[in-house]
Specification:
It is built from 13 helices and ten strands. It is globular and about 60 Å long. Helices cover 34% and strands 15% of the residues. The protein is α/β, with parallel strands linked by helices and 322 residues long. The longest helix has 13 residues. The strands form two sheets. A six-stranded parallel beta sheet has the order 5-4-6-7-9-8, sandwiched between helices. A four-stranded parallel beta sheet has the order 3-2-1-10, with no helix packed on it. It has two domains: 113 residues, Rossmann fold (3-Layer(aba) Sandwich), CATH 3.40.50.1220; 170 residues, Rossmann fold (3-Layer(aba) Sandwich).
Length: 322
Amino acid sequence: MHGARSTNFILQEADLLVVLGARFDDRAIGKTEQFCPNAKIIHVDIDRSELGKIKQPHVAIQGDVGEVLAQLIPQVEAQPRSEWLQLVADLQREFPCTIPQEQDPLTHYGLINAVAACVDDEAIVTTDVGQHQMWVAQAYPLNRPRQWLTSGGLGTMGFGLPAAVGAALANPQRKVICFSGDGSLMMNIQEMATAAENQLDVKIILMNNEALGLVHQQQSLFYKQGVFAATYPGMVNFMQIAAGFGLQTCDLNNEADPQAALQAIIDRPGPALIHVRIDAEEKVYPMVPPGAANTEMVGNKPCNKRLMKTLFYSSPCATILA
């Protein structure tokens, strides 16, 4: 739904799609009949009910992904892929991943960059579900397996804080950063008490736009009657709530030097809430409109059809979703 532009166009040209333990969720594939129209599909999943449920594979394999790969990989022979690799390079060049390298911690991307600059590579990052989740996926420099805990296909609002609590209990020596939105945080806000009781080193980064961001975005872009039941300006004082649970608090909007204040509270042991107001009009791009194909992205220049036809490859390739 918010994937990289180049990736969506690359998938459109693949001739073989190997899907390992992933669901064909509409948030990932868009309009089913237009997803990877040229590809033969091999779907591996331990859950038989997922095989053929939404997208019919040419080969369906029920089993443990690790065991299946151990048998399949020795049978794969190397083949030249120069035309395919050239097509991939051209599409990546035409549709670059252009995430603003903002450093202002009072902006959405700037805040994510600023937080990343305050912690080392050992930090565990969790998110709730919403615009903040997509921005973190786009911008945070994730460099190791299991560093990022998020509810992707399920889209469970309220996931981030309990996940952060669990991560901190299991890894007391590592810093845990929980990015959340005001809507998601209120789903499980009581877990602040757990973090305080156990003095867990969990830092909640609250990106507060006083709205249900993704709902607001879809309504403002696609619903002609305007936005409704998606905003609640000035209704909740998260600073007082967090302090009541026993957390340290910091409102970056009220700090003379937001970056220094951010560094100071992240370095301080124990749980804390770091609050930043975000403009409710900020959007997540690119975006696939509801019911559209992945190539019909909003916030994206039109695909160069001549490029696609000219560089269409003939050698086999596999695109792996994991």
